Amino acid sequence: MRTLGVDLAAAAKKTAVAVTDWADGAARLEHLSLDVGDEEILRLFGTSDMTGIDCPLGWPDAFLPFIAGHLNFDAHPVLDHDGIAGRRLLAYRDTDRFVTGQTGLIPLSVSADRLAHPAMRCAVIQAKIAREYGPQARDGSGRLAEVYPAASLKLWGLPTRGYKGRGTPETERLAVALDALSTAAPWLDLAGHDDRLAASDDMFDALIASLTGRAVALGRTLRPDGPPGAALTEGWIHLPRGGLQELPG
Q: What is the chain's alpha carbon radius of gyration, rounded to the nearest angstrom?
Protein backbone atom coordinates (compact mmCIF):
# COMPACT_ATOMS: atom_id res chain seq x y z
CA MET A 1 0.00 0.00 0.00
CA ARG A 2 1.06 3.57 -0.73
CA THR A 3 -0.41 6.48 1.21
CA LEU A 4 -0.08 10.12 0.25
CA GLY A 5 -0.21 12.89 2.84
CA VAL A 6 -0.86 16.48 1.79
CA ASP A 7 -0.42 19.54 4.01
CA LEU A 8 -2.34 21.96 1.80
CA ALA A 9 -1.72 25.71 1.73
CA ALA A 10 -3.52 28.34 -0.33
CA ALA A 11 -0.83 28.12 -3.03
CA ALA A 12 2.04 25.84 -3.98
CA LYS A 13 4.35 27.67 -1.58
CA LYS A 14 4.32 25.89 1.80
CA THR A 15 2.25 22.99 0.42
CA ALA A 16 3.98 19.74 1.37
CA VAL A 17 3.48 16.12 0.34
CA ALA A 18 4.74 12.84 1.77
CA VAL A 19 4.35 9.36 0.26
CA THR A 20 4.74 6.32 2.51
CA ASP A 21 5.20 2.80 1.20
CA TRP A 22 3.85 0.00 3.44
CA ALA A 23 5.04 -3.60 3.19
CA ASP A 24 6.05 -6.56 5.35
CA GLY A 25 5.11 -4.95 8.67
CA ALA A 26 7.10 -1.78 8.05
CA ALA A 27 6.83 1.56 6.31
CA ARG A 28 9.27 3.73 4.34
CA LEU A 29 9.01 7.42 3.55
CA GLU A 30 9.36 7.13 -0.20
CA HIS A 31 8.85 10.74 -1.28
CA LEU A 32 8.88 14.12 0.48
CA SER A 33 8.62 17.55 -1.10
CA LEU A 34 7.67 21.15 -0.38
CA ASP A 35 6.16 23.93 -2.52
CA VAL A 36 3.98 21.52 -4.47
CA GLY A 37 1.49 22.49 -7.17
CA ASP A 38 -1.85 20.95 -8.09
CA GLU A 39 -0.54 18.79 -10.93
CA GLU A 40 2.02 17.08 -8.69
CA ILE A 41 -0.69 16.40 -6.11
CA LEU A 42 -2.86 14.86 -8.83
CA ARG A 43 0.02 12.73 -10.11
CA LEU A 44 0.80 11.40 -6.64
CA PHE A 45 -2.89 10.82 -5.92
CA GLY A 46 -3.02 8.61 -9.00
CA THR A 47 -0.16 6.44 -7.74
CA SER A 48 -1.43 6.14 -4.15
CA ASP A 49 -4.03 3.87 -2.59
CA MET A 50 -5.20 6.45 -0.05
CA THR A 51 -4.62 10.18 0.35
CA GLY A 52 -4.94 12.03 3.64
CA ILE A 53 -5.29 15.78 3.13
CA ASP A 54 -5.00 18.37 5.89
CA CYS A 55 -7.72 20.70 4.61
CA PRO A 56 -11.53 20.81 4.82
CA LEU A 57 -13.24 18.97 1.99
CA GLY A 58 -16.47 20.96 2.34
CA TRP A 59 -18.36 23.75 4.08
CA PRO A 60 -21.09 23.65 6.75
CA ASP A 61 -24.41 22.60 5.23
CA ALA A 62 -26.02 25.78 6.60
CA PHE A 63 -23.46 28.09 5.00
CA LEU A 64 -24.50 27.91 1.34
CA PRO A 65 -28.25 28.57 1.92
CA PHE A 66 -27.24 31.50 4.13
CA ILE A 67 -25.06 33.00 1.38
CA ALA A 68 -27.69 32.28 -1.30
CA GLY A 69 -30.36 33.93 0.84
CA HIS A 70 -28.22 37.02 1.26
CA LEU A 71 -27.47 37.11 -2.48
CA ASN A 72 -31.15 36.76 -3.46
CA PHE A 73 -32.59 39.07 -0.75
CA ASP A 74 -34.34 36.05 0.75
CA ALA A 75 -34.51 36.90 4.44
CA HIS A 76 -35.64 33.53 5.78
CA PRO A 77 -32.40 31.46 5.48
CA VAL A 78 -30.44 34.47 6.74
CA LEU A 79 -32.61 35.16 9.78
CA ASP A 80 -32.47 31.45 10.68
CA HIS A 81 -28.94 32.18 11.86
CA ASP A 82 -29.55 35.32 13.89
CA GLY A 83 -27.46 35.29 17.06
CA ILE A 84 -24.13 33.72 18.01
CA ALA A 85 -25.52 30.18 18.25
CA GLY A 86 -26.87 30.42 14.72
CA ARG A 87 -23.63 31.80 13.39
CA ARG A 88 -21.69 28.92 14.93
CA LEU A 89 -23.64 26.61 12.60
CA LEU A 90 -22.32 28.69 9.71
CA ALA A 91 -18.75 28.54 10.95
CA TYR A 92 -18.34 24.92 12.12
CA ARG A 93 -19.23 21.56 10.63
CA ASP A 94 -20.52 18.47 12.42
CA THR A 95 -17.04 16.97 12.15
CA ASP A 96 -15.42 20.03 13.74
CA ARG A 97 -17.69 19.67 16.76
CA PHE A 98 -16.97 15.92 16.88
CA VAL A 99 -13.21 16.54 16.89
CA THR A 100 -13.53 19.02 19.74
CA GLY A 101 -15.59 16.53 21.74
CA GLN A 102 -13.06 13.75 21.17
CA THR A 103 -9.80 15.67 21.56
CA GLY A 104 -10.48 19.09 23.07
CA LEU A 105 -8.92 20.68 19.97
CA ILE A 106 -10.94 23.27 18.04
CA PRO A 107 -10.39 23.05 14.27
CA LEU A 108 -10.19 26.34 12.39
CA SER A 109 -13.43 27.40 10.71
CA VAL A 110 -13.52 26.75 6.97
CA SER A 111 -15.95 29.62 6.42
CA ALA A 112 -14.77 32.20 8.95
CA ASP A 113 -11.03 31.72 9.44
CA ARG A 114 -7.78 31.52 7.48
CA LEU A 115 -8.62 28.02 6.24
CA ALA A 116 -11.02 29.50 3.69
CA HIS A 117 -8.36 30.14 1.03
CA PRO A 118 -6.81 26.64 1.18
CA ALA A 119 -10.33 25.16 1.14
CA MET A 120 -11.10 26.97 -2.11
CA ARG A 121 -7.96 25.47 -3.61
CA CYS A 122 -8.92 22.09 -2.19
CA ALA A 123 -12.32 22.30 -3.92
CA VAL A 124 -10.54 22.90 -7.24
CA ILE A 125 -8.21 19.95 -6.58
CA GLN A 126 -11.20 17.74 -5.78
CA ALA A 127 -12.76 18.75 -9.10
CA LYS A 128 -9.52 17.91 -10.93
CA ILE A 129 -9.36 14.54 -9.18
CA ALA A 130 -12.99 13.86 -10.11
CA ARG A 131 -12.29 14.72 -13.75
CA GLU A 132 -9.25 12.45 -13.95
CA TYR A 133 -9.95 9.63 -11.46
CA GLY A 134 -13.64 9.91 -10.57
CA PRO A 135 -15.43 11.74 -7.72
CA GLN A 136 -14.20 10.99 -4.21
CA ALA A 137 -16.72 10.87 -1.36
CA ARG A 138 -16.11 13.63 1.17
CA ASP A 139 -16.63 11.25 4.10
CA GLY A 140 -13.37 9.46 3.26
CA SER A 141 -14.96 6.26 2.01
CA GLY A 142 -13.09 6.54 -1.30
CA ARG A 143 -9.40 7.26 -1.86
CA LEU A 144 -9.39 10.76 -0.36
CA ALA A 145 -9.86 11.51 3.34
CA GLU A 146 -9.70 14.67 5.43
CA VAL A 147 -7.21 14.49 8.29
CA TYR A 148 -6.04 16.77 11.10
CA PRO A 149 -2.38 16.14 12.04
CA ALA A 150 -2.61 17.87 15.44
CA ALA A 151 -5.49 15.59 16.43
CA SER A 152 -3.68 12.49 15.15
CA LEU A 153 -0.59 13.40 17.15
CA LYS A 154 -2.62 13.96 20.31
CA LEU A 155 -4.46 10.65 20.00
CA TRP A 156 -1.16 8.87 19.39
CA GLY A 157 0.28 10.43 22.55
CA LEU A 158 2.82 12.60 20.70
CA PRO A 159 3.67 16.32 21.15
CA THR A 160 1.11 18.50 19.41
CA ARG A 161 1.74 22.13 20.27
CA GLY A 162 4.25 24.85 19.63
CA TYR A 163 6.18 23.33 16.69
CA LYS A 164 4.69 25.50 13.93
CA GLY A 165 6.85 28.46 12.97
CA ARG A 166 10.43 29.34 12.15
CA GLY A 167 11.72 30.60 15.49
CA THR A 168 14.19 28.73 17.66
CA PRO A 169 11.57 27.50 20.18
CA GLU A 170 9.37 26.16 17.37
CA THR A 171 12.30 24.44 15.67
CA GLU A 172 13.30 22.81 18.94
CA ARG A 173 9.75 21.60 19.59
CA LEU A 174 9.53 20.20 16.04
CA ALA A 175 12.73 18.22 16.64
CA VAL A 176 11.22 16.85 19.86
CA ALA A 177 8.02 15.87 18.03
CA LEU A 178 9.99 14.11 15.28
CA ASP A 179 12.11 12.26 17.83
CA ALA A 180 8.96 11.19 19.69
CA LEU A 181 7.48 9.89 16.43
CA SER A 182 10.64 7.92 15.62
CA THR A 183 10.64 6.38 19.10
CA ALA A 184 6.95 5.45 18.95
CA ALA A 185 7.19 4.08 15.39
CA PRO A 186 10.50 2.16 15.10
CA TRP A 187 9.05 0.41 12.05
CA LEU A 188 9.03 3.74 10.12
CA ASP A 189 12.08 4.33 7.91
CA LEU A 190 12.46 8.06 7.25
CA ALA A 191 14.89 7.25 4.43
CA GLY A 192 17.36 9.98 5.32
CA HIS A 193 14.76 12.76 5.42
CA ASP A 194 15.19 13.40 9.15
CA ASP A 195 16.87 16.79 8.74
CA ARG A 196 14.29 18.03 6.23
CA LEU A 197 11.42 16.96 8.48
CA ALA A 198 13.06 18.63 11.48
CA ALA A 199 13.34 21.87 9.51
CA SER A 200 9.79 22.06 8.10
CA ASP A 201 6.56 21.75 10.07
CA ASP A 202 4.75 21.57 6.72
CA MET A 203 6.61 18.44 5.65
CA PHE A 204 6.23 16.96 9.13
CA ASP A 205 2.45 17.49 8.95
CA ALA A 206 2.39 15.91 5.48
CA LEU A 207 4.05 12.82 6.96
CA ILE A 208 1.47 12.68 9.78
CA ALA A 209 -1.27 13.05 7.15
CA SER A 210 0.20 10.11 5.24
CA LEU A 211 0.29 7.96 8.39
CA THR A 212 -3.30 8.91 9.19
CA GLY A 213 -4.23 7.96 5.63
CA ARG A 214 -2.99 4.46 6.45
CA ALA A 215 -5.31 4.36 9.47
CA VAL A 216 -8.20 5.40 7.22
CA ALA A 217 -7.37 2.67 4.70
CA LEU A 218 -7.28 0.05 7.47
CA GLY A 219 -10.64 1.19 8.87
CA ARG A 220 -8.97 2.31 12.11
CA THR A 221 -10.46 5.79 12.39
CA LEU A 222 -13.55 7.15 14.12
CA ARG A 223 -16.59 7.40 11.86
CA PRO A 224 -19.93 9.19 12.23
CA ASP A 225 -22.50 7.46 14.39
CA GLY A 226 -25.26 6.03 12.21
CA PRO A 227 -25.69 7.11 8.56
CA PRO A 228 -22.95 9.43 7.25
CA GLY A 229 -25.39 12.34 6.82
CA ALA A 230 -23.59 15.67 6.77
CA ALA A 231 -20.21 13.96 6.39
CA LEU A 232 -21.03 13.32 2.73
CA THR A 233 -21.49 17.02 2.02
CA GLU A 234 -19.42 18.79 4.67
CA GLY A 235 -16.49 16.37 4.86
CA TRP A 236 -15.32 14.27 7.80
CA ILE A 237 -12.05 14.57 9.77
CA HIS A 238 -10.67 11.08 10.36
CA LEU A 239 -9.30 10.59 13.87
CA PRO A 240 -7.09 7.54 14.47
CA ARG A 241 -8.67 4.75 16.50
CA GLY A 242 -5.84 2.85 18.11
CA GLY A 243 -2.11 3.38 18.45
CA LEU A 244 0.68 3.91 15.97
CA GLN A 245 1.84 0.33 16.51
CA GLU A 246 -1.28 -0.93 14.73
CA LEU A 247 -0.48 0.79 11.42
CA PRO A 248 2.12 -1.56 9.91
CA GLY A 249 -0.38 -4.45 10.03
A: 18
